């Protein structure tokens, strides 16, 4: 019978919860069952397997099975626990932001590698502090990319933009709970347009690094998205237009305008975006284009440098 436990030990609740999630065909049902149990118990994973005999109160047991039921009905685990780990940091997530994905960590790696290479080429130490670097994360959502980069580059000046004010509020809260709100300036903006009024003729605002994980799901693919994504993640974070790559042309054009000569652009790609996006990097404007695959072998990150006449 759903949600009724006679034995309220951790071991038994976990077994029943996981069983219900498996029956509902929830992906990664064991992990989901564990995370929900840890959430209601307010404990960490080590505790879970060290205390299999601990007895939950009737109230905590009821809370656990209520969450299991909601997960079985399609709500993402992260919306139920309110958090997701990314780059070793814990981020608050709400239905207003995309849940940070592991493949986006490749974008951070590529950005840091490219910055280190730039230092080496300039005859400096590749050990990065971010000193003298100004960067922007376009479409920041939860703030995961901007915050991870700000943590890695403690001396960098970091901007984060989003067209969604609700998303920016989540990003601001994440920056605050991760102790770096002073270091990130969040700006409501359609791509990079919000920076135009900030730049003056005497003090143009230009970046050393622009990173972006844009919405890249096409109309056709939208219907085949898992229910968790289709019904619960924000349309504005997913919908990349008819084909899914409609953001890139404008983003690349604006990035060219806002990058310093030799500045870096690092973009996350949808699983089939590369053939449409790579040709947008006009060789008279961009150099050193490179593609990085994710762990599934999908071309996931496209990086290039704004052409700098030597
Ligand atoms: C795929 S999500 C990426 C979120 C986050 N950067 C990440 O990697 O998890 C795309 C983000 O772009 C934002 N967005 C959509 N259209 C935008 C636009 N025209 N200008 C700025 N941001 C936009 C969405 O609100 C969403 O937060």
Q: What is the global morphology?
A: elongated
How many β-strands, per DSSP? 9
Strand content: 15-25%
| Share in helix | 40-55%
Q: What is the SS-derived class?
A: alpha/beta
- The count of helical stretches stands at 13
Provide the gyration radius in Å.
22 Å
> What is the spatial order of strands in the main beta sheet?
5-4-3-6-7-9-8
Q: List SSEs in N-to-C order.
A: HHHHHEEHEHEHEEHHHHEHEE
Written description of the protein model:
By secondary structure, the chain is of the alpha/beta class. The protein has helices at 10-23, 29-41, 45-50, 58-72, 77-81, 104-121, 144-152, 165-177, 219-223, 227-232, 235-238, 246-258, 274-277; strands spanning 83-86, 89-92, 134-138, 157-162, 184-188, 207-212, 259-268, 286-293, 299-306. The strands form two sheets. Strands 5-4-3-6-7-9-8 form a seven-stranded mixed β-sheet. The protein has a two-stranded antiparallel ribbon with strand order 1-2. A hairpin with a 2-residue loop joins β1 (83-86) and β2.
